[in-house]
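Hey, can you fold this one?
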Amino acid sequence: GQGGHRHAHSVSPDGQVLAFEEILAGTGNDIWVMPLMGERKARPFLRTTFNETAARFSPDGRWIAYSSNESGRDEVYVLAYPGPGGKRQISTEGGTEPVWAHSGRELFYRNGDKLLVTDVTLQPAFSAGQPRVLFEGRFDTLPWNSNYDVAPDDQRFLMVQSAEPGTGQTQIYVVLNWFEELKRRVAPK
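Sure. Predicted structure:
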């Protein structure tokens, strides 16, 4: 691309490809990919009149999750990489900031103050279950990328929470044992 703003999003699991967002007049926010070896020539991966943001490679490198406003509101989608392949909508009532579980069995995303999770299968074919809310909290967001991450064991999250105005304090919350809490909440009575 020529000019515009660029934001790095994700590196493929093999370290070979960078997914980034480029913002240009006319097409808005688009997802590009660039090899990190050899010629390093960037090419558009997803370029539409809508805004595509927050691209994240799946742990197997065969899918990219991202957020797009093509439906009229932000939703989370998954698209085969490098393509061709079908696009799948993951979120059902709005979604931004997708982050894959390291296991490749879940995809997390935000919708306002909610953090949701969808069970996914990557191979032999992609499939996704129904999203469910993991927890809620007033955590900071970024307009172009995910402002949280999941620990390597997929059991904890690191999220940024701004201090209340005027307090001069910043806090970081780590949610521990969320899976046990989820099991407790959904256990049959």
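The two ends are 56 Å apart (CA to CA). Let me know if you want another pass with a different chain boundary.
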